[in-house]
Specification:
The protein is mostly helical and about 140 residues long. It has helices at about 1-30, 40-45, 50-65, 90-100, 110-125, 135-140; strands spanning about 70, 75. Helices cover about 55% and strands about 5% of the residues. Strands 1-2 form a two-stranded antiparallel ribbon. Helix 3 (about 50-65) packs across helix 5 and helix 5 crosses helix 6. The structure holds heme C.
Length: about 140
Amino acid sequence: MKKYTFTVRAFALAGFALSIVGAVAPLHADEAPPPFSPRVSVFFSPFAHRDGQTIFRAVCQGCHMPDAKGATGAGSYPALAANPKLASAAYPALTVLRGRHGMPAFADYLDDAQVAEIVNYVRTHFDNHYADALSADDIKKLR
Ligand code: HEC
């Protein structure tokens, strides 16, 4: 009889312990990914931005660095700052559209106006002073 009581208690305790684990575990469990929602993913997309500075921060600076001075390490990322190759607007525009060696192409991710914005931005910032701005129409012709 005594043994039986012990067994019941042991089960009760084990059940109690499990219920605590059950109650606490979801807080630590990996959360399921949120359901796909185009509205949310466009909102968080690095390519959703419209102005040059924000596009630079979201898309370009990861490789070319926030000061646009580039970096050398696991790869080699040229400086966009004070870069004489930006004198011809077509050069950075085609680089952004088509990619160049280790740089990915962004033609499928940025529209004409966004490419014009980002190219105009880097050509007039970071010690670059090229005033001839590109329009979205110019980019359309380069595609
Ligand atoms: C994934 C990394 C990466 C990202 C993101 C990136 N680039 Fe690049 N970029 C590179 C690499 C690497 C090169 C050098 C390619 C080569 O070997 O000629 C380069 C080259 C360039 C060049 C040519 C520089 C020169 O001196 O020849 C320009 C202009 C440029 N990138 C602009 C941009 C702009 C603007 C953006 C944002 C829209 C951007 N890049 C995003 C990696 C990147």
